[in-house]
Amino acid sequence: MIKDNLKILRESFKISQRELGRRIHMSGQYIAQIEKGERNPTHKTLEKIALALHAELSELLERPNLIGEIFLNIVHEKGISHAELVKQCKLSDSDLKSIFVNFDITKPDLLDSYYSVGKYLGLDSTFLERRKKMEPEIINSITDSIDPYKLYYDISASYDSWLRENSVYNFDFHKYFNRTSNMQSQDNFSLGDINNLLRSTLVDILRSANSSTVLNYGLDDFSPDEIDELINFVFNSFKLKINELLEKHEISSLQKK
Predict the structure, then answer these.
(1) pLDDT single digits (tens) 194-230
(2) Contacts of 116 by beta carbon, 8 Å cutoff, 6+ apart
(3) Are 140 and 133 within 8 A, CB to CB?
């Protein structure tokens, strides 16, 4: 693992074995032996190598994550929804999934989207550029010991799980009902509060339509104005139902008194 990671990191920075050896006061031959698996560097030496490469020690010791795995970790840590990322980065659902699940640097349009997503997630240009160069080598190194189909399946499953996190099926209506019941006026009922929920609901509905032999739609088939119109329709229906339930609840409470 260390030998592969070292070679990937070194080549991504276009540093020769000789130059890296000079930076850590070792010979280029010593670096070559590590990369061939003929030498096992000490922990202290690995720390020096990581420092010389401006990398984290974990990047040498652990199986490097693919770009999709890095992005998924960040969206989970920061609580960023699928709908938010699609909207803020102005991407199609298919392009976003391609970046996360099967990143392909040979596509210029996808590469631009990769930088857009990466920067929105808080990653700097230097890191994104380095990871772009490393990705092919990482894939080659890990697929020697890991089934590429299983790897693809695991990342895809993680992506789909993230996509469903803000789905209507996981929305806590009881919590939302309690919050809205304390509102003083309908003006406080903000569309932005449930915008992500409604967009996810549309995705679920359109996915169901895809199973039909007649309909085959995705969000990309609708203009932004049409999507906003659909969201407003769902929102207004949702608001009417909430008000109806609140009214029934109030009447029921008065009758009990």
Answers:
(1) 555 556 666 666 555 554 444 555 556 667 677 667 7
(2) 89, 90, 91
(3) no
Q: Helices 2-12 & 125-142, crossing angle to 10 degrees?
A: 140
C-alpha dist (Å) from residue 151 to 52, 61, 106, 142:
31, 20, 20, 9
Q: Which CATH class is domain 2-61?
A: mainly alpha
> What is the distance between the alpha carbons of residues 224 and 25, in angstroms, rounded to a whole number?
58
Which of these CATH numbers, 1.10.260, 1.10.1270, 1.25.10, 1.10.1760, describes 67-164? 1.10.260
pTM of model > 0.85: no
Q: Which residues, in sequence order, are CB contacts of 95 under 8 Å at separation 6+?
A: 109, 110, 113
d(CA 128, CA 135): 10
* Residue 201 in tokens: 């609901």
Assign residue 40 a region: left if phi > 0, alpha if psi is -120 to 50, beta otherwise? beta
